[in-house]
Amino acid sequence: MNDISDQKQLEDELFISEERYRFLFENSGVAIGYYKPDGTVISYNKKAAENMGGQISDFLGKSIYELFPKEDANLYMDRITKAAESEGQQEYEDYVPLRSGSKWFTSTFCKILNSKGNVDGIQIVLQDITERKQVEEKIKESEGRLNSAQLMAHVGNWELDLETQTIWASEEAFNIYGMDYLPASPYLPLSFVQRAVLPEYREHMDKALAVLITKNKKYDEKYKIKKRNTGEERFVHTYAVLNINEIDNSRKVIGSILDITDYKNAENEIKFLGDHDQLTGMYNRRYYDEVLTQINDSNSVPVTLIVADVNGLKLTNDAFGHKSGDALLKRVAEVLVNESRAGDTVARIGGDEFVLILPETNAKNAEEIIDRISLAVRNEKINNLIPSISVGYAVKENIYDNINDVYKKAEDEMYRHKLFDSSSMRSKTVDLIMKTLFEKNEREMLHSERVSELCAELANKFGFGNYKTDQIKTAGLLHDIGKIGIDEKILNKAEKLSDEEWKEIKKHSEIGYRILSGVNEFSQIADFILAHHERWDGKGYPKGLEGEEIAIEARIIAIADSFDAMMSKRPYRKAFDEDEAIEEICKCAGTQFDPSLAKIFVDSIRNKELVFRTIAE
Q1: DSSP one-letter string for 540-565
Q2: What is the pLDDT of residues 141-161, one digit of tens each?
Q3: Which of 174, 240, 250, 325 sees the fewest Cβ atoms within 10 Å?
Q4: What are residue 187's phi and psi, to 5 degrees?
Q5: Cα(42)–Cα(275) distance, rounded to whole angstroms?
């Protein structure tokens, strides 16, 4: 008998080992398949069969081409062949279509050798990573949304590693610094970021970062950087905290960066608009009141206030439009600013009123400045109009003087000057308006001159004295002054006017009234100009006055104006002859015209007592 105890022990150990391997193989949580080098299934464990959607016996002995679509089978066969020819193992990650439902797997291919060193088969181990991939995808989506939000909001994130002195930065952080973003290497040296900060901010920034690191005090700073790609200066706001890892006690600075340039610009613009007049760009009433309060509370004397008022602004607006009025104000504002000194405050405090606050300025200095301003204004010219301003000043010489009383004295002096300056200015403006109107339309000039003469002759026939005759003669000359406010295209239109264009033309009597009513020497004439298109029957404009409600002067202008218009050729009709014009006056007597005036006018024309100067003459 031979002793086989050792052999039996080895057999038992081998059996136990094989059982252990079989149990692990069959019950493993990962899918394990064993294939011949030609792709035939030798064995599957339970998980592999489960993934394939069947029982183990369903797959044994089958070719890989029977189990998968041809394209997938070719791929797996290539991997089996490669594993058979290679040392070690090959790893892959795939989205695999299965009967039980497509899933993500990591797969490991490795060859199994027999006792002779030949390839016995290929073992494939598959780990289901579908849940992990889904989580990764969600994280990726979340990061994408966060990145998009950062890009849209111009907010970047960054993280400073204090040990390596490198900064990880998000895409928008790179954009803010004007650098190309490389997802594979989103890092910047700390020194580069520090150099991007403008020199006047750099020292303060370094100190703030040092305080954060050493004292864990929050970092909340606004500063300017220069973008690397464009050299453009931008305002940024950075907020950061110190993060200490509890496990290894490592420290990092985690922060955000926001481009606030647009916000700062808007903030500055709002502040500018709050302190400045929108039209002229100089300081406004609010800012002026603040400065005045500061001066009143200070002990600094002497302080001079100069009050300046633009003459003829309303007249300019009425005659030439608000654009011309605005141009006048802006030009005067420019002169005041140019002639003031550094440290002076120049403000527009009303529609046509300006104030200069002159610190450390006595009466003599103030008069020199006023002389400079007055000369500079006289040398200006806007649309043939020479600007005019009335100026007054007063000096705060004692610290106990109230600045408001000083302003009142300066304003009173300005108004005293305005009594003389404004009247002369308005008269000159009326002359300029008529000149401008006649330059725009020569026909209007000839028409106004003829109407003026007819008005004077009719006034004589009606028994007016010299004063009233001169007055109505002037009114006849100025009766269409309001046409300065009518579009030249309408005034010079060759065709018949449309209804809308007639509405515009009808405004000229009101415009003329506004122009002349503010000028002392023409204030009475203004009423005649307003009413010269009223009718005897009350169907005229603008007020619909009737009969003797209409001033006699306006009734005279109405006849002279109509007669001359009929006797003048128009592009859309020929001129009336004298008999036709007289017949029309007679026909409209008692409706359009004062019947008594119409009879006197017609009789005078027929008897050659009133001579109409023709266009040719």
Answers
A1: -SSS---GGGS-HHHHHHHHHHHHHH
A2: 655 555 554 445 567 888 898
A3: 250
A4: -125, 150
A5: 89
SS3 sequence, 18-85?
HHHHHHHHHHCCCEEEEECCCCEEEEECHHHHHHHCCCHHHCCCCEHHHHCCHHHHHHHHHHHHHHHH
- Per-residue tokens: 437: 């109107």
14 CB neighbour count, 10 Å cutoff: 10
**Backbone phi and psi for residue 245, each to the nearest 5 degrees, phi listed first:** -75, 120
How far apart are alpha carbons 333 and 402 in whole angstroms? 27
Distance CA 133, CA 113 (A): 34
Q: How confident is the model at residue 314 (pLDDT cuts 50, 70, 90)?
A: confident
> What is the C-alpha separation between 295 and 297, in angstroms, rounded?
5
Question: Which residue segments constitute the domains of the chain, with CATH numbers given?
Answer: 9-128 (3.30.450.20), 134-265 (3.30.450.20), 278-424 (3.30.70.270), 441-606 (1.10.3210.10)
Whether the per-residue pLDDT at 15 is higher than 80: the answer is no
Kindly report, residue by residue over 560-582, the tens digit of the pLDDT.
999 998 988 776 678 888 889 99
> CB–CB of 385/341 below 8 Å?
no
Most confident option among 44-53, 202-211, 260-269, 550-559: 550-559
Please indicate, yes or no, whether the overall pTM of this predicted structure exceeds 0.90: no
Distance between alpha carbon 132 and the CA centroid of its chain, in Å? Answer: 49
> Beta 155-161 vs 41-44: how paired, if at all?
unpaired
Can you tell me whether residue 147 is helix, strand or coil?
A: helix
Question: What is the pLDDT, as a whole number, of residue 305?
Answer: 95
Rg (CA), the chain: 49
Spatial neighbors of 617 by CB under 8 A, at least 6 apart, are none
Q: Which of 566, 572, 561, 559 is nearest to 601 (CA)?
A: 559
Task: Report yes or no: 534 and 550 within 8 Å, Cβ to Cβ.
Answer: yes
Tell me what the pLDDT averaged over the chain comes to: 84
Of 236-250, 432-446, 468-482, the range with the lowest mean pLDDT is 432-446
Distance of CA 257 to the CA centre of its chain: 25
Who contacts 278 (Cβ-Cβ below 8 Å, separation ≥6)?
A: none
